[in-house]
Amino acid sequence: MINIISMKGKTEKDSNGYLIFKDSGKHIHRWVAERKYGKESIEGKHIHHIDGDKTNNKPNNLILLSKEDHYDLSQHENRTKLLTDFIIYLSLIYLVLINLLMHTSILNQEVSLAIARISVLIIFFIALELRQGYIGKWIRKPKG
User: Fold this and answer.
1) Among 116, 89, 141, which residue's Cα sits nearest to residue 107?
2) Three-class secondary structure of residue 15 per DSSP
3) pLDDT by residue (tens digit) across 20-50?
């Protein structure tokens, strides 16, 4: 088992946010992947942090990908994050509009409040699903 906790004080972040060993400058995620997959297995491969945290170098957070697959996955994750952020901002604008309508007597307060609450819950769950993929994880969860 790889003891990452004992590395504290021996590491620092590089300019891209990855942890490296102070003495050698070697990336820790590559060092951990070498121990997990074997040195020959990682040659020419990209190492992807599953949770997106460049400092989380636990073996179960690292997977090997080809350059092309890593690029495609990163693009997908970036698009998902942008879409999630867009939905969150859109929901805030929507709430402001509902509040304006509430105060201009176009809709009565009870109806406006009910619409706003339901809408916020729906938008929240959509954004949460896009960001975390809980439904997909639950569907794919192995039995047992």
Assistant:
1) 116
2) coil
3) 999 999 999 999 999 999 999 999 999 999 8
